[in-house]
Write a structure and sequence with these properties.
The protein is α/β, with parallel strands linked by helices and about 120 residues long. The protein has one domain: 3-Layer(aba) Sandwich (Rossmann fold), CATH 3.40.50. It is about 35% helix and about 20% strand. It is built from 5 helices and 5 strands, in the order βαβαβαβαβα. A 5-stranded parallel β-sheet has the order 2-1-3-4-5, with helices on one face. The longest helix is centred in the N-terminal third of the chain and has 13 residues. The protein starts with 10 loop residues before the first strand and ends with a helix.
Length: about 120
Amino acid sequence: MCQYSEGSKKKVLVVDDDPGIIYAMRLLLEEEGYAVTLLDRGEEVEKVLATNPPDIILLDMLLSGKDGRAITRQLKSQEQTRHIPIIMFSAHPSLSKEAPAAGADDFMTKPFKIEVLLEKLARYT
């Protein structure tokens, strides 16, 4: 797990079990001025939210271990976390309808275009 940078930057929590995605997201988001926390397991999301809640969550839909859809349903059902926007992503475009059904605010397919990701981040932060 990588902790947030300090300061007044917008905080983004990225959860994905693909090391390549994690690495690329960190480089891109830090370059764009975001403070980034990276998780490769869904089981750690609640711990991060309790200690330093993000402004937005980028969440892989199909995680090994705890499924991204289950995480989204859980977070959106809790008063203290339901306000945090969640953008889900998946390499399976056919899952796009499952993201809003789980409570996600938006969805992107992997691989995603950098400009689309940045536009969505700007829209929700």
